[in-house]
Amino acid sequence: TRRARLSLASTPAAFHLGTAISVTLSSQVTPRAELPASALLERDGKTQVWVIDPQHKTVALRDVTLIARRGDSIVVGEGLQPGEQVVTAGVNSLKPEQKVAFDEDAQ
């Protein structure tokens, strides 16, 4: 049981201030990735990040959809898969399929 404060667009006549109600929330939680804003590359009208291919130790440019900007971070809604590693520094100097060195244990 949780106590919450609600605001309703239209209130039924039988509803009184302080009335106890039961609410069931249902939603699907979609995985989101929060990244440093330095990972973001915006050019040619596209929002992109460099994704690391750990097997070949190369990078590929990936289009992403942002759902939020929070100061020094961004929240990616679409375009990344769970577990993928993203370059967070030097994004303006990379080229597709460029070899990179990275910390394989980084999250």
Could you characterize what this model shows?
The protein has a domain at 33-93: conserved putative lor/sdh protein from methanococcus maripaludis s2 fold. Strands 2, 3, 4 and 7 form a four-stranded antiparallel sheet that branches. The chain is elongated. With 107 residues, it is an all-beta fold. A hairpin with a 2-residue loop joins strand 5 (65-70) and strand 6. The protein contains no helices and seven strands.
Describe this structure in a few short sentences:
The protein is mostly beta strands.
Number of DSSP strand runs: 7
CATH class designation of one domain: Mainly Beta
* Proportion of residues in extended strands: 25-35%
Helix content: under 10%
**Uncertain spans, ≥5 residues at pLDDT below 50?**
none
Query: How far from one another are the termini?
Result: 35 Å
Secondary-structure element order, N to C: EEEEEEE
Outline the fold blueprint.
Layout: E1 33-36, E2 41-43, E3 46-53, E4 58-63, E5 65-70, E6 73-78, E7 85-86
Antiparallel strand pairs: 1-6, 2-3, 3-4, 3-7, 5-6
Key terms for this structure?
four-stranded antiparallel sheet; three-stranded antiparallel sheet; conserved putative lor/sdh protein from methanococcus maripaludis s2 fold; 107 residues; mainly beta
